[in-house]
Amino acid sequence: MTAPPTITEQDQAITATVLRERSRLWHFIRRRVADQTDADDILQDVFYEFTQAYHLPEPIEQVSAWLFRVARNRIIDRFRKKKEVALDDLGSGEEDEDCRLDLMLPSPDGGPEAAYTRAMLLEELQRALEALPANQREVFIAHELDGISFKEMAAETGVSINTLLARKRYAVLYLRQRLQALYDE
């Protein structure tokens, strides 16, 4: 029977894994998270969780797969936290209430299939946001994800509130159309 690794052996193994996986994992996260600071935070969270798990008595079988799975979960968690706050304001008219994005997503507590479907929908939302014209995307993200009011945006950019409202409305309509097709599948 082999002796358990010493702390220095564990630290060396953790360091080797971080150095080996860091670049691939960061690019994986960055493709799914628009903000570089958020991507860096998620990467740090993943490696922190890895170091904690590495010190447990049970070894991690497939380290690379484990790291990517944890990264995906952290991305979903971060996106969910931002959306929980912002999507409450999405319905600005009565026709908006039955088609809110947060209601289209399966519950995160609905089991593995629901979690997988939710992750796929969130990835499609990210791609849909990237497909929007820049001015619509910027207004949508500023209002929905960053919580900036139209009044603040108008003061900051010099663009009228009505123009900002129209840009967001076009973005919402496009996102609904694109996500509805995926949701119907």
Automatic annotation (TrEMBL):
Entry annotated with the keyword Transcription: yes
GO biological process, one term: DNA-templated transcription initiation
Keywords associated with the record: DNA-binding, Sigma factor, Transcription, Transcription regulation
SUPFAM superfamilies: Sigma2 domain of RNA polymerase sigma factors (SSF88946), Sigma3 and sigma4 domains of RNA polymerase sigma factors (SSF88659)
Source organism, top-level taxon: Bacteria
Domain RNA polymerase sigma-70 region: from-to ranges: 20-83
Chain ranges of the RNA polymerase sigma factor 70 region 4 type domain: 123-163
Any one GO molecular function term: DNA binding
Stored Pfam families: Sigma70_r2 (PF04542), Sigma70_r4_2 (PF08281)
Alphabetized InterPro entries for the sequence: RNA_pol_sigma-70-like, RNA_pol_sigma-70_dom, RNA_pol_sigma70_r2, RNA_pol_sigma70_r4_t2, RNA_pol_sigma_r2, RNA_pol_sigma_r3/r4-like, WH-like_DNA-bd_sf
Keyword Transcription: yes
Family statement: Belongs to the sigma-70 factor family. ECF subfamily.
Protein known as: Sigma-70 family RNA polymerase sigma factor
Source organism: Duganella margarita
